[in-house]
Amino acid sequence: MSINVRRLSTLAVLLFVAGAFLYAFAGTMRGGYASSAAACQPSSKPQQKKMIDMISDDSYMVDYGDSTIFILVGNFAAHHNGAVILADSAVRYGNQSFECFGNVLINQNTTYIYGDRAEYNRDLNRATVYSDLVKIVDGDATMYTYNCTFDTYDNVGEFFGGCYAVNKDNLLEADRGYYYSDTHDLIAVDNVEMRNDRYEMTGDSVIYNVETDFAQYFDHTHMWNDKGEYMYADAGTYDKQIDLYKVTRNGYILSSEREMWGDSLDYYRSAGHIVARHDIQVDDTLQKVLGFADYGEYWEEPGNAFITRRPSLINYDPKQVDSVFMCADTVWLYTLSARPQPEDPLPAADSAGAVRARREVRCRSGRRRCGRRGADIRLVGRDDRCPGFAATRPGIVRPDRRCLAGAGRGGGCGRG
Predict the structure, then answer these.
(1) Shortest CA distance to 163 belongs to which of 152, 150, 151, 173?
(2) In terms of Cα–Cα distance, which of 70, 74, 72, 51 is closest to 62?
(3) Burial, 150: exposed, middle or buried (Cβ in 10 Å; 0-12, 13-18, 19+)?
(4) What angle do CA 74, 75, 79 make, to 5 degrees?
(5) Residues 236 and 248 sit within 8 Å (Cβ to Cβ)
(6) CA triplet 139, 117, 85: central angle to 5 degrees?
C-alpha cells in the first residue's frame, strides 16, 4: 500500500513538472507571436490630451440640467495646442468643450480666423467658426467663406459652401477646400477659378501656395492668358515667379497662328519658349506646315523651331496642288525676314551717261579733278565746285555738253 502511494506521488510530481514546462513553453510562444505581430503593425502614438487654459474678467457658475456650466464674461481668452482663442464671452460645458461669442479670433502661428461665434471640442482639437462671412488671414492672403473648421493639432482649416481668396493680385474661387497653415497651401476643390492680370484658369481642383504663388492643377484645367492663347491640361503646375506653365498630361496650346499637342509641355511665357516631349503634333497655320516628333522646342522670336526623335514635316499649302513630306533624324526650322525694299531706288542709267561715264571727263578748277575713265560718276552737287557738271535731280549729276565737247578735242572745261 505504501509502495503504491509513493508511486502515485512520484507520478503526480512528474505530471506537474511536465505541465508547468508545457505551460511555460506555450506562454513563451504566445509572447513571441504577439511581439512579432506588434512589430508588423504601424506605430500609432496617441495624441496627448492637453488641458485648456482659460481666462476672463469675470466668471460664475450656473446649474444646467444635471451638470454645472461656467460663464466667462469680458475679454475671454483660451489656449490649447499652441492656438489662442479670443472672444467677448464664453460658456464652458466641462473639460472637453466650450463655446464663445462676440468678436471671435483664433490665432495659430501666422493664421488668423475671424467670426461671430465659435465652438471648440478638446477631444477633436477642432474649432468650428460661425459668421455671416468667416474671414481667414495669412500674410498677404485673405480668404472669405461661409463655413469653416480649424484643427489646432494639425493646423489645418476646412471650408465649404463657397470660398473667395485674394492674394496680392491673384483671385481664387472654389466650392470647398482645405488650408494648411504650416505650409501655406490652399487646396481648392470643385468649380475652381483663378485669375490675375496675366491669366485666367478654371478646373476641378488646384493646390495654391499663397506664399510662393506656385499653383498645381489637375483634371479638366482650362487656361487663357493676355496674349490671346488658350491652354488645356489634365495635370501640371504654374510658377508665377518665372512665368512657367508646366503641363505633364494631355497638354494642348492654341494661338492665332498655331496649335500644339503633347504629353508634356513646358511653356516659358515671358521668354516665348516652348519645350514639348512625347507624341508632339504641331499645326502651323501661318506657314502651312504640320510637324510630328517626340521632342521639340519653339521660340516665338524669331519663330525658329527644333524637332528630333522621329521628326517629320508636311507642307500643305492650299495654293499648291501637291503637299511636301520630309523626315530626318533632326530638323531645324528657321524664319527669315524678307529683305526690305529701298524707299527711293536710283533711276536707270540714261543715254547721257548719268550713272556710268563712257569718257574721261576732266573738269579742272585749279588742281581739282572730277571723274575717272570707266568709273561711275560720283553723285556730287554744285557744292563740289565742278563747273562742268549741272545737277538735274537732287543727288544725281549730269555732265555739261560743253564739257563733253571739250573733252573730245583733248581740251578741258574751265570757268567762264
Answers:
(1) 173
(2) 70
(3) buried
(4) 130
(5) yes
(6) 55
Q: How far apart are CA 253 and CA 265, in angstroms?
A: 9
> What is each CA distance from 144 to 87, 165, 172, 180, 342, in whole angstroms?
20, 6, 11, 15, 63
Single-letter code of the amino acid located at 367:
R
Task: Record the pTM.
Answer: 0.62
Grid coordinates belonging to 46: 496617441
372, 358 contact by CB (below 8 A): no
Summarize pLDDT for 247-294 with one digit per residue, the tens.
888 888 888 888 888 888 888 888 888 898 888 888 888 878 888 898
Return the bridge partners of 149, or none. 128, 158
Residues in the chain: 416
* Backbone angles phi and psi of 164, in degrees to 5: -130, 120
> CB 167: neighbour CB atoms within 10 A?
21
402 Cβ contact list (under 8 Å, min separation 6): 388, 413
pLDDT digits (tens, 9 = 90+) for 288-342: 888 889 898 888 887 788 888 888 888 887 777 777 888 888 888 787 766 666 6
Please, which residues bridge with residue 117 across strands? 101, 130
User: What does the H/E/C string look like for 322-349?
Assistant: CCEEEECCEEEECCCCCCCCCCCCCCCC
Cβ 232 vs Cβ 258: under 8 Å: no
